[in-house]
Every structure is written in C-alpha cells, then in structure tokens.
C-alpha cells in the first residue's frame, strides 16, 4: 500500500463508478432471538478479489482500508493466575483502553485475559478497573455482534464490581446503523450517489452480523459517546479534527452526534459517517498542531485514538499482491505527533495485534 493512498474522508477523490450488483443486496429483517454464536466463514474471505485496485482518493463508497488476508488466528495462551493483577478493594482502579476490535472476539477475550481483566471463563475479574473501548466493534472480522454482546455484558459486570466498562462511537458503528436504517436509500456524496448498504458491504460488512443485529444492539450503538476525557487522556475513535465541527465542548459534541442520529435523516447521518472516517490528521507535517487544536478545545494532555492501523501510520504495509510482504509487526501502541498522540489500532484485521493498554503508558 502506497502511503497517502487513503485520504482523509469522502468526497475528496475521483468519482467512482459503483457496481450495479451491489444495489441488489437488501438488509435482512431483524432476528428477534439470540442463540449461541456459530462461527462464520474465515474472515479472510472478505478480502478484495485478486487484481482489485483501490482509487487514489478515498470515499466511503469504496473500502476504507483494504482487508488483508490473514493467516490462521494466533491464539494466546494465558495463565489466569499469573495474568490477574491484584486490585484495590476501594477507590478508583487503573485505566485501560482497547483499540479497534472489528469482530475478532477470540482475540479480544485473550487480550483482556492477558491484562487480568477477565478470568478464565471470560467474566470481569478486575474489580474497580476502568475500561474504555475506542470503537469499531464490527465488520471485517467474524463475530461483531458477539463483541458487542461481550462489551454490554462486561459493562454490567464491571459496574457491579465498582469499576466500569465503557465504549466510544466508531465510524463502523455509524456505518452499521446507517446500513440497517437506510439500506439502499441514496445519499448525497461528494463522489456522486452512494448508499449506506453499498458502503457497508465494501468496508467488510458481515451478513452474520446483520442477521443477528437486534433492537437493543442498535439502541446501544446510537447512545455511544464520541469523545471523552479521562485522567488527562482525550479519548476519540478517529485521528481527525472533524470532531470540532460538532461542538466546542465534549458534552456538546456528544449531544450533537446523538441528536443527529435521533433525527434519522440519511444525508445527515452520512455526513457524520463521512467525517468520522477521515484519518491521518495527526501523522504528517502539522500533525502535532492538529492534536493541540483538539486538546486546547476539549481538554487533556494527550489524545488516544484508534481507527488508523499502526502499520499504516508507520508506512510499514506493502502491496497486497507482494508475495514477499510479511505480516506487520505491532508490539504495542504507537506514540507520535511530538508525543501528543497515542495510536491504539494494532491492525488485527491484517494479522497485527489487538491492543489493550493500561494508561498512562509505562504503568
């Protein structure tokens, strides 16, 4: 992948001719029952067909990021007794953040167990610890709904133990909400007519997720905050300054996003999705100033985000057709923009690593 081939958002690239067959897809009806998860086909099959190329300019009518064929999932062996860290019985517990999950439930559980947040049975065991997910729970991977169900369950279990588990709105939550609500309804796009359904399919939408999507999942996603500040860390999903378009305070941004979703106007929700899909604002020249514009407005001394995989931020990912291209190596969060930004998307969809990190760094 050539650096810079993903620009910051929709409507900035050339007009792309849409494949007519994409409009033949319809959003399945609600499934009003929840049963045990049946593993879907290997996530590698959502990768683009051989020979497919991506336009220089990005628009949500095209894939946001290429889905790189992954090898078999690497399972992490965890000794729960060794991993579990003792927690104080009272007071505020340690703070953790989780990068993009994209349906990789097994990897998420293993990473949380490795940090001592879940026990061997997958239940909350971290007492008063505080856990924040940075968004993007679904698409590309095999079990996005299973991930949402886990986060919802952990929210209740952590609260009962005196801690908490909370989540932010990612662009893929907006995409899934839009695909469910609006389907093939045309929306205004800078690259011509688009639909949420087509964008969802092109960005790794999984039929198994849509088939299992229920009202309580939709309500939960629609109520997620977009921005939060915790212990001096400004938490957002996307590495973009587009949040400034929605308010001059954290409360105003979150209220504006929720009000936009409540009005249920397809063009408004598309514009919200388009702006939350922008990326790389902190990476290049002027990146530190972009971070400061957010910190000066919303507070905090460092910004923590997901969205843009660390291998892309580092320029370490080559072309997909390159047989010699090795899997990206991600050891942990990426600190950049004069030390003001912490990237947390370890690139789990491209055989990278699903990151769970205690903050501040070094603790």
UniProtKB/TrEMBL annotation:
<dbReference type="InterPro" id="IPR006186">
    <property type="entry name" value="Ser/Thr-sp_prot-phosphatase"/>
</dbReference>
<dbReference type="GO" id="GO:0016787">
    <property type="term" value="F:hydrolase activity"/>
</dbReference>
<dbReference type="InterPro" id="IPR029052">
    <property type="entry name" value="Metallo-depent_PP-like"/>
</dbReference>
<protein>
    <submittedName>
        <fullName>Metallophosphoesterase family protein</fullName>
        <ecNumber>3.1.-.-</ecNumber>
    </submittedName>
</protein>
<dbReference type="InterPro" id="IPR004843">
    <property type="entry name" value="Calcineurin-like_PHP"/>
</dbReference>
<keyword id="KW-0378">Hydrolase</keyword>
<dbReference type="Pfam" id="PF00149">
    <property type="entry name" value="Metallophos"/>
</dbReference>
<feature type="domain" description="Calcineurin-like phosphoesterase">
    <location>
        <begin position="94"/>
        <end position="310"/>
    </location>
</feature>
């Amino acid at each position: 992948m050539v650096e810079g081939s993903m620009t910051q958002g929709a409507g900035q690239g050339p007009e792309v001719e849409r494949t007519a067959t994409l409009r033949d897809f319809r959003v399945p009806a609600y499934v009003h029952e929840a049963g045990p998860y049946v593993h879907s086909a290997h996530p590698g099959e959502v990768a683009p067909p051989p020979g497919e190329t991506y336009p220089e300019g990005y628009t949500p009518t095209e894939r946001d990021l290429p889905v790189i064929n992954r090898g078999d999932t690497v399972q992490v062996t965890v000794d729960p007794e060794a991993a579990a860290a003792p927690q104080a019985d009272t007071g505020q517990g340690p703070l953790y953040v989780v990068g993009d999950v994209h349906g990789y439930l097994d990897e998420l559980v293993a990473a949380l167990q490795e940090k001592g947040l879940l026990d061997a049975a997958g239940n909350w065991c971290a007492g008063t610890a505080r856990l924040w997910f940075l968004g993007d729970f679904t698409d590309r991977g095999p079990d996005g709904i299973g991930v949402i169900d886990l986060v919802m369950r952990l929210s209740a279990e952590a609260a009962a133990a005196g801690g908490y588990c909370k989540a932010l709105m990612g662009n893929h939550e907006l995409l899934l909400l839009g695909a469910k609500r609006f389907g093939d309804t045309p929306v205004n796009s800078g690259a011509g007519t688009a639909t949420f359904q087509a964008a969802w399919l092109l960005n790794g939408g999984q039929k198994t997720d849509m088939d299992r999507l229920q009202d309580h999942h939709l309500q939960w996603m629609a109520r997620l905050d977009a921005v939060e500040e915790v212990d001096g860390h400004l938490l957002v999903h996307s590495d973009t300054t587009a949040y400034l378009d929605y308010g001059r305070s954290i409360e105003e941004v979150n209220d504006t996003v929720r009000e936009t979703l409540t009005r249920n106007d397809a063009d408004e929700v598309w514009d919200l999705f388009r702006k939350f899909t922008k990326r790389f604002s902190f990476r290049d020249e002027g990146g530190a100033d972009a971070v400061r514009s957010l910190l000066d407005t919303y507070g905090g001394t460092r910004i923590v985000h997901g969205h843009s995989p660390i291998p892309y931020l580092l320029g370490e990912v080559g072309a997909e057709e390159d047989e010699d291209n090795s899997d990206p190596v991600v050891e942990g969060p990426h600190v950049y923009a004069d030390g003001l930004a912490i990237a947390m998307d370890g690139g789990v969809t491209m055989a990278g690593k699903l990151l769970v990190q205690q903050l501040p760094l070094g603790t």
